[in-house]
C-alpha cells in the first residue's frame, strides 16, 4: 500500500443489503487509494484503504437502517453503521466503495494491532465456492450448487420445486462435469489452495504482530461454511473478519455466502453478539492491482514480441438479470477493475490492447457479454496472433482455469488462427497478494460490530393448506412443461463446473 492516500466522497449510490434490499436512504460512497489506483442480489460492500491515512480525528459516521427481503428471508431487518474518513488531500479517484447493512465495514482508522492481539481472540473467515475433490463428489456438489436460491432464482410460487430441480440438473450435468474434473486430475484443487492461502495469511498477520485463527468456509462442499462457523464458536473467537476470496462482489458468490452467515448468526445467541466485519469486495486495493500487473508483466516475457500481445481478461459471467433486475454491481466492478489494472500496466510502459469477456455461461437465459468463446473466434478472424489470457475473477486455480481456459479456450484460440497463446496464473499464495489481504484484515478489524437482527423475524408462510395445494398443483404442471422443453434439457447437459 502506498504511504500517501487521497479520499473523496463520490456521487451518492443506493445501498443494498445481503438480500434484495429496499432502502429509503441514499448513502455517500467513498473511495480511498493512491492517485487513480487503487461474486445473491445486493450491492457491493468494499472499503479500500491505504496505510498512511491522515486526519483520523476528522472522521465521521452516518447511521443507516435498511430493511432487507428476499425470496428466502422476508422479515429480517439489519442495522449497520457507515464510517468514512474526513477530508484528506484530494487526488484523482476512480472507483466506489459500498458499505453493507448488518455489519460495519472498515474505514481509515489506524489501529494498534498489538492491543487487539492482547485483548481479544481474533478470527478470520475465508469464504470460497468449494469444489468436488473426487469424481464421486461431482454430482452431490452440483446438487448443493443448484439448490442455492441465489444460483437458481425461482418465483415464490415455485420454491417447493427447488430441490427436485437441483436434483434433476445435477444428474444431467454430472457426466459431462466429471469429464472436466477427470481432465485436471480427478478433482478440484480449490480446497488445497485455499488452505494454503489461509496458512499464508495467518503467517502474514502474525508477522504484523496480530495472532489470529484463520478458518476456511466453502459454500457448496467441505469444509462447509456452517462447519467453519461452529469451529469459530467452539474456539470462542471474540472478533471476526470475514474475507470472501472473490475480488469483485456478486449476488451469486459473496452475496450467497453472506446470506448463509446472516442466517446462522441470526439463529444463535452467541454469534448474534459477536463483532463481525465483512470485506465484501477488494478488487480496487492497490496490492491486488499491483499483484495482477506483476503476473501479466512476467507472462509477457514468454512472448517473442510482447508489444503485439492482446490481453484477454476472462471473468466468470453472471446472468444479465442479476445486474439489471437485482442490482448486482459485479459488471461495474469488473470493468473498473480492468481499468485499474491497465492503468498500472501503462505506468510500467505496457500499452497493449486489451478486452474483457465473460465465461462459463449456462442455460437458455442471457448472460453478461461478450462471451469468451465468441471473442476468441472474432480475434482470430481479425488477425490477432498473440494472446494472453488473464483469469481476472479467480484467485485460485480450479476447473474454470485449468480446464475451461487452459484446454477448451486454448484449443479454440489456436483453431481460430491465434498462434501464440499464454495464460496468467491465478494469484494463489503470491506474497504481495497475501500481504495485501493481511492489510485488509487489519484495516477491517476496528469497526467490527454485532450483527443486529430480530430473532422473531420469520419469512412469511402460507397458512391456508388449500391455497398451498392449488399452488403446488399448477406449479408442478408448469414445471413439467419447462423441464421437458428441448432448450432446457440441452441447457442442463452443458457443463458449468
Spatial order of strands in the largest sheet: 7-6-8-9-14
Q: What gyration radius follows from the Cα positions, in whole Å?
A: 23 Å
Give the termini separation.
Answer: 35 Å
Question: Helix share of residues?
Answer: 25-40%
Number of helices, counting only DSSP H or I runs of 4 residues or more = 15
Order of helices and strands: EEEEEHEHHHEHEHHEHEHHEHEHEHEHH
SS content category:
alpha/beta
Strand content: 15-25%
Biggest beta sheet attributes:
5 strands, mixed
Shape: globular
Number of strands: 14
Quaternary state of this entry equals single chain
The residue-averaged pLDDT reads 76
Residue ranges: pLDDT <50 for 5 or more in a row? 1-118, 453-463, 468-475, 477-482, 484-496
Plain-language structure description:
This protein has 497 residues and is an alpha/beta fold. It has 15 helices and 14 strands. The strands form four sheets. It has a five-stranded mixed β-sheet, with helices on both faces. Helix 12 links the parallel strand 12 (386-391) and strand 13 (420-423). Helix 4 packs across helix 13 (431-444). The model is unreliable at 1-118, 453-463, 468-475, 477-482 and 484-496 (pLDDT under 50).
Draw up the topology in text.
Layout: E1 6-14, E2 20-22, E3 26-33, E4 60-69, E5 77-84, H1 113-119, E6 122-128, H2 138-146, H3 162-183, H4 190-207, E7 213-218, H5 225-234, E8 239-244, H6 251-266, H7 269-272, E9 275-278, H8 286-300, E10 310-316, H9 320-324, H10 330-347, E11 354-359, H11 372-381, E12 386-391, H12 399-415, E13 420-423, H13 431-444, E14 449-450, H14 465-484, H15 486-493
Parallel strand pairs: 6-7, 6-8, 8-9, 10-11, 10-12, 12-13
Antiparallel strand pairs: 1-3, 2-4, 4-5, 9-14
Amino acid at each position: 500500500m502506498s504511504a500517501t492516500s487521497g479520499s473523496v466522497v463520490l456521487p451518492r449510490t443506493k445501498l443494498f443489503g445481503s438480500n434484495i434490499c429496499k432502502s429509503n436512504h441514499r448513502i455517500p460512497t467513498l473511495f480511498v487509494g493512491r492517485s487513480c489506483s487503487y461474486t445473491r442480489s445486493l450491492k457491493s460492500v468494499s472499503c479500500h484503504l491505504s496505510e498512511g491515512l491522515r486526519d483520523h480525528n476528522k472522521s465521521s459516521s452516518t447511521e443507516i437502517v435498511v430493511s432487507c427481503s428476499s425470496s428466502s428471508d422476508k422479515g429480517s431487518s439489519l442495522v449497520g453503521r457507515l464510517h468514512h474518513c474526513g477530508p484528506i488531500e484530494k487526488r484523482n479517484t476512480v472507483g466506489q466503495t459500498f458499505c453493507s447493512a448488518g455489519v460495519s465495514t472498515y474505514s481509515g482508522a489506524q489501529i494498534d494491532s498489538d492491543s487487539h492481539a492482547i485483548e481479544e481472540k481474533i478470527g478470520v473467515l475465508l469464504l470460497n465456492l468449494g469444489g468436488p475433490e473426487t469424481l464421486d463428489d461431482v454430482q452431490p456438489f452440483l446438487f448443493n450448487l443448484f439448490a442455492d436460491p441465489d444460483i437458481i432464482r425461482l418465483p415464490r410460487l415455485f420454491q417447493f420445486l427447488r430441490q427436485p430441480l437441483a436434483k434433476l440438473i445435477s444428474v444431467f450435468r454430472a457426466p459431462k462435469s466429471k469429464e472436466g474434473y477427470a481432465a485436471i486430475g480427478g478433482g478440484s484443487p480449490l480446497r488445497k489452495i485455499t488452505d494454503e492461502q489461509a496458512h499464508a495469511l495467518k503467517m502474514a498477520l502474525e508477522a504484523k504482530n496480530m495472532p489470529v485463527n484463520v478458518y476456511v468456509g466453502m459454500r457448496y462442499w467441505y469444509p462447509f461454511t456452517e462447519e467453519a462457523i461452529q469451529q469459530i464458536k467452539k474456539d470462542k473467537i471474540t472478533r471476526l473478519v470475514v474475507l470472501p476470496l472473490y475480488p469483485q462482489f456478486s449476488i451469486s458468490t459473496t452475496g450467497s455466502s453472506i446470506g448463509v452467515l446472516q442466517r446462522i448468526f441470526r439463529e444463535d445467541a452467541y454469534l448474534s453478539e459477536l463483532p463481525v466485519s465483512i470485506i465484501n469486495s477488494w478488487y480496487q486495493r492497490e496490492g491486488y492491482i499491483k499483484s495482477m500487473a506483476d503476473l501479466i508483466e512476467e507472462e509477457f516475457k514468454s512472448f517473442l514480441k510482447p508489444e503485439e500481445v492482446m490481453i484477454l481478461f476472462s471473468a466468470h459471467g453472471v446472468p444479465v438479470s442479476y445486474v439489471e433486475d437485482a442490482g448486482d454491481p459485479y459488471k461495474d466492478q469488473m470493468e473498473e477493475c480492468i481499468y485499474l489494472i491497465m492503468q498500472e500496466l501503462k505506468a510500467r510502459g505496457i500499452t497493449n490492447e486489451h478486452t474483457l469477456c465473460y465465461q462459463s455461461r449456462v442455460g437458455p437465459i442471457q448472460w453478461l457479454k461478450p462471451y469468451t468463446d465468441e471473442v476468441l473466434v472474432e480475434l482470430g478472424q481479425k488477425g490477432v496472433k498473440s494472446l494472453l489470457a488473464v483469469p481476472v475473477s479467480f484467485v485460485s486455480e480450479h476447473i474454470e482455469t485449468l480446464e475451461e481456459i487452459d484446454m477448451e479456450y486454448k484449443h479454440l484460440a489456436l483453431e481460430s488462427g491465434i498462434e501464440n497463446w499464454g495464460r496468467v496464473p491465478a494469484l494463489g499464495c503470491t506474497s504481495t497478494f497475501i500481504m495485501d489481504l493481511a492489510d485488509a484484515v487489519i484495516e477491517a478489524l476496528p469497526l467490527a460490530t454485532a450483527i443486529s437482527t430480530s430473532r422473531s423475524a420469520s419469512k412469511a408462510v402460507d397458512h391456508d393448506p388449500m391455497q398451498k395445494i392449488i399452488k403446488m398443483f399448477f406449479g408442478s404442471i408448469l414445471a413439467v412443461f419447462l423441464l421437458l422443453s428441448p432448450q432446457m434439457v440441452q441447457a442442463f447437459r452443458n457443463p458449468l463446473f
